[in-house]
Design goal:
411 residues, alpha/beta, TIM Barrel, Hypothetical protein af1432, eight-stranded mixed beta barrel, 9 strands, 53% helix, elongated
Length: 411
């Protein structure tokens, strides 16, 4: 049985019953429920599942995503792996408040991060604890089951620049009551149940994440980092998706792993790797055979195309483009999504995209050759090698090198 990841999604509606955003919820079973014992792990797992496994745009359709955070999460630099353009950080009511936390939130707020306060209650103690924070908060979520005098509560909060979200709307009467009180947004089972998303789990190995973080902190060379990254095609492709979501980065087309790593920078790359480390399950379950086979297949094809490109043109730039083409050509199997949809989550150089989607250009021809080699399609192999002026013994050499390279990388 393949290991799975789970994610819950609950829509947030406006006064016209139009979806305004989505709350993303930690789930760990088919039962659409979860017991959270570690908020940092739960937040990281939600983010990794949304960003890596499912794809944020598939979940939120370019609307805001609300995710729960506590003080431990906010103090950790993995928070910088979250793009403020796409997420609202929903501060849990049990968060330990302190002057240091206020300063941290103030710093994040200046960087553009948006905050919500979860389960605000009309009690003196709760208000005193979070009063200073309300100047940095954009949304306040209020549980309809806890409140008696809603108009008075909202009037009390009106001196702050806040939007109000009514939680646990169960029927039309509660919706109208909240609407009349002055709420801006609403969520609850009256509008929608929690949608459960489930996908095959293909997390990179725990040891690989540790090694990459160590290499970054020890200022290892780019070549060493790339060699280590190449052990996990899934990690490389998720890096492309991650870059696409970040303002200032996503508009630049990418043709190689080296370019992607230079673009994101060491610090933000380290934040992203730490996010995946925190998301890793406590039992550190071994990588499944299914994930290993997919990874091996992706590496073999990518290395074969890289060797062919290097042999035919003698250009490292072209070899890197061929490697990326080969890797992306297996992405449908890795992510269980259409290739065209996956490419929308990345910004890939046009010649690579055309090779993948239309089999155009030299890269498209190399991809056809790689596919023919895998299926032992001799007629197609002869046709393409003839057009490329590639001798059979040269093709065999490239195949052997690609198998050797993919098999020698640690699993």
């Amino acid at each position: 049985m393949r290991p799975s990841i789970y994610l819950g999604r609950l829509p947030i509606f406006d006064n016209k019953r139009t979806i305004y955003g989505y709350e993303l919820l930690y789930r760990d079973t088919d039962e659409n429920s979860a017991v959270v014992s570690d908020n940092l792990h739960a937040t990281a797992r939600v983010l990794v599942n949304a960003l890596n496994h499912i794809g944020l745009n598939n979940l939120t359709r370019k609307k805001l995503a609300f995710i729960k955070v506590d003080d431990k999460t906010l103090f950790d630099d993995m928070i910088y792996a979250i793009s403020p353009k796409h997420f609202v950080l929903e501060i849990l009511e049990e968060t330990t408040f302190s002057t240091e936390l206020f300063d941290r939130i103030k710093k994040l707020h200046k960087k553009g991060y948006i905050f919500a306060l979860n389960h605000y209650r009309d009690t003196g103690a709760f208000h005193l604890r979070y009063q200073a924070l309300l100047t940095l908060i954009d949304y306040v979520k209020i549980d309809m089951d806890d409140q008696q005098d809603l108009p008075s509560l909202l009037t009390h909060l009106d001196k702050y620049d806040l939007k109000y979200i009514a939680e646990k709307i169960e029927d039309e009467e509660q919706f109208q009551k909240a609407k009349e009180a002055g709420f801006d947004y609403y969520q609850g089972y009256y509008f929608s149940n929690v949608n459960l998303f489930k996908k095959d789990k293909l997390d990179p190995q725990y040891s690989l994440l540790i090694q990459l973080i160590y290499l970054l902190k020890s200022d290892s060379t780019m070549d060493i980092l790339i060699e280590k990254f190449n052990e996990s095609p899934y990690l490389t492709l998720n890096l492309l998706k991650f870059i696409r979501l970040h303002e200032g980065l996503g508009s630049q087309s990418i043709a190689s792993l080296e370019q992607a790593m230079v673009l994101i920078g060491r610090e933000r790359l380290g934040n992203w790797l730490e996010l995946m480390l925190y998301a890793y399950d406590k039992e550190n379950e071994p990588e499944s055979n299914y994930a290993k086979q997919l990874s091996l297949h992706a590496k073999q094809r990518a290395y074969l195309m890289e060797e062919l490109a290097r042999h035919i043109k003698g250009s490292e730039k072209y070899a890197h483009e061929a490697y990326m083409t080969g890797l992306l050509s297996v992405s449908e199997s890795l992510f269980s999504d259409k290739l065209s949809d996956l490419l929308k989550q990345m910004h890939i150089q046009a010649n690579i995209a055309n090779a993948l989607l239309k089999r155009k250009g030299g890269l498209g021809r190399l991809l056809d050759l790689a596919l023919a080699v895998e299926t032992n399609d001799l007629e197609t192999i002869d046709l393409i090698t003839s057009k490329l002026s590639l001798e059979q013994h040269e093709l065999n050499e490239c195949v052997l090198i690609s198998y050797r390279r993919s098999s020698s990388a640690p699993e």
